[in-house]
Amino acid sequence: MHQLTLAEIARALADKQFSSAELTGSLLSRIEQLDPQLNSFITVTAEQALEQAKAADARRAAGENGPLLGAPIAHKDLFCTRGVLTSCGSKILTGFKAPYDATVVEKLANAGTVSLGKLNMDEFAMGSANESSHYGPVKNPWDTSRVPGGSSGGSAAAVAARLLPAATGTDTGGSIRQPAALTNLTGIKPTYGRVSRWGMIAYASSLDQGGPLARTAEDCALLLGAMAGFDPKDSTSVDQPVGDYLAALAQPLAGLRIGLPKEYFGAGLDARIGEKVMAVVEALKKLGATVKDISLPNLQHAIPAYYVIAPAEASSNLSRFDGVRFGYRCENPKDLQDLYKRSRGEGFGEEVKRRIMVGTYALSAGYYDAYYIKAQQIRRLIKNDFVAAFNDVDVILGPTTPNLAWKLGEKNADPVSAYLEDIYTITANLAGIPGLSMPAGFVDGLPVGVQLLGNYFQEGRLLNVAHQYQQVSDWHKHAPSGF
Amino acid sequence: MALERSEVEKIAHLARLGLGDSELPQTTATLNSILGLIDNMQAVDTTGIEPLAHPLETTQRLRADTVIETNQRDAYQAIAPAVESGLYLVPKVIE
Question: How far apart are the first and last CA of chain B?
């Protein structure tokens, strides 16, 4: 049962091959048996899951037949879940049982999904390796001595190891696409504003977007269709109808114009990854696509600009964690300043403190123009590059990551080296366009991801291209041995 | 421009982050390495480029000025570290 995709589960549940309660029970025992090797869950909500599964079975018995009714998933632990620990991977949210559900959680629950629990992540989504979690690092099921990517590393590891068919994630600089690439999954970061951020604990509010990680593009289409939509509770939610992502999958690729940015294939890219990416391009050509060389000249400036904008927004967003209203409070504070400083000093991990300090510095008097305004000007240049490119092409294709999954601890001594791993993914967040990563093969037994970028609100086109590729390839069907 | 230890102490104070004396040298070195990366921005000519704060460049939506939330004080205070009679407790601020 655990090998089934969401689409296959939907058919099996409709055919009464098994019930949601049976499926949920089977996955819960798999999690109990296998997750100690991966550490992908922070909280397993077994009792609630079985109740939700029985409720879904009852809805089905009463005649309902939605595609996600009774489908098991789990949420990245930065989506607020009422009455369930929502930790964001941080000590500072110790004991924080959210008083409400995030819009994404509520929408997926209304669609009938069963939530098995909360998934591990880099603390406050700050990381590319899932090593900064207060709840310990997550291991990559393809090689448990390696990282699964981050920050949605728990989501990726759990789905790749077949503990779940799909999970939610969030992507501020690549946190859905990069772990999807390193664990052989398909994941999509939608256009900024497409999925509600209400109840998603904020890291960098102008970059954060929620989205699905699954094993196929079809499953991502299924989940994204239920997650997306206008939400008056999110001030940056976009009031525009959600496309029919499932219907879009079948569109033939004849005439598709693919752009290959030369900057994505330059120095810094593992050549073996480049070869896998070009093999995908050849397969897409056979399906009728045409290819054009393009340039995104400001790519190299994206990392410095991102590491100003994201920390600046984080320093402001994370000021709410004060040890007063919820979460961790230090022992015996001697005065209010001491309460703030020690609660935050003890409650936040190293990487989070670093980014708060970088952001505080960038926003401080005398440095604002040199850092924050400059970064926002570069952000405009990056957006302009994409606007120009999409005049000539429908999708932009390249590697998702410059390197394969690295060893646990390998990049801990030098945070800057880990920042450079985000080079191909962060531009989509800065510009606000959608991006998808899908499996493209293996190098030394480790998964390689190919990234597709589309124009604003072209999620359906990205899912379509990935789905058509998955009809002529089988990389996405490979499972890690031992899982 | 490299940060001195005293500047790092000031930034930590502005951010209300308690840093131990033993953490300061390492924090200073790491922040300087990150700022070194960020300083690459200065090589980019951005003369006349309008800063982009929001990817979709939309304006803030307005809504009717009516009550939409109900009082949830008890639910919110149930997860607070210290409360009494509906108030959040902190160390004495005014002597």
Answer: 43
Which domains can be identified in chain B, with CATH numbers?
A: 5-42 (1.10.20.60)
Say what the pTM is: 0.97
Alpha-carbon dihedral of residues A58, A61, A67, A73, nearest 10 degrees? 30
Distance from CA of A360 to the nearest CA of B (A): 6
Of B17, B20, B90, nearest to A356 by CB-CB distance is: B17
- Mean per-residue pLDDT, A90-108: 97
Question: Model confidence over A222-253: pLDDT tens digits?
Answer: 999 999 999 999 999 999 999 999 999 999 99
- Rounded to whole angstroms, the Cα distance separating A421 from A424 reads 8
Q: B11–A235: do the CB atoms touch at under 8 Å? A: no
Q: Residue A142 is part of which domain span?
A: 6-252+464-477
Cα dihedral across residues A420, A422, A423, A429: positive or negative: negative
**Amino acid found at A249:** L
Is the separation of the CB atoms in A281 and A397 below 8 Å? Answer: yes
Give the torsion sign (CA, A303, A308, A309, A315): positive
Q: Is residue B92 pLDDT above 90, yes or no?
A: no
Tell me which of A87, A90, A115, A151 is the catalytic residue: A151
Active site includes A151?
yes
Q: Is A155 a catalytic residue?
A: no
